[in-house]
Known about the structure:
Strand content: 5-15%
Distance between the termini: 29 Å
CATH class of the largest domain: Alpha Beta
Shape: globular
Number of strands: 5
Largest sheet: 5 strands, antiparallel
Number of domains: 3
CATH architecture of the largest domain: Roll
CATH superfamily of the largest domain: RNA-binding S4 domain
Structural class: alpha+beta
Radius of gyration: 18 Å
Amino acid sequence: MARYTGPVCKLCRREGEKLFLKGERCLTQKCALERRPYFPGMHGRESQFRPRRKSSYALQLREKQKARRIYGVLERQFRRYYNMAKRQDGLTGENLLIILERRLDNVVYRLGFASSRSQARQLVRHGHFELNGRRADIPSILVKPGDVISVKEKNKKLTYFKELAKEIEHRPVPDWMSRDSLNMTGRILGFPRREDINIPVNEQLIVEYYSR
Length: 212
């Protein structure tokens, strides 16, 4: 399965804001954007002193790239999600974000079982979770209301999940899902709404980008 394997801090610097791709590290002074708040590359430092006016196309492209990088999705799959959203009733941009939120790796992250989406993706790929009692190791599975995500019983004894049990209560859970911290399970209560999706993206610009 294709995925980005380069330095993720460079992606945050390119967008000029924190995308929280490294979880809790992004909240510390170790964050690359705190140490080097300018674009990557040999001319990146010049962007601090000579900001350029962005065209409409550049604004649309940056919003699309930002959403892709936040959710860890490559271009081909992102476009497929956009086409799915366009066929659904309602606003295409909101539909797109809802589809991205329903990905299994994102749900594992939202439930607090991982500190970042990339870590959640790795945990899913390694087969640590079950979906409705069956092994689920495909990060792109789209969950639906009523689905139950749980840590495999034998994997609860692993050091990672033992340490997670001590701090998971401090990680908030969105209203469209519930979590049983003691049993390491989560349930999908419904589809997320736009106000439940707290990511810094203007989805209308993404729609405009693909509508050119």
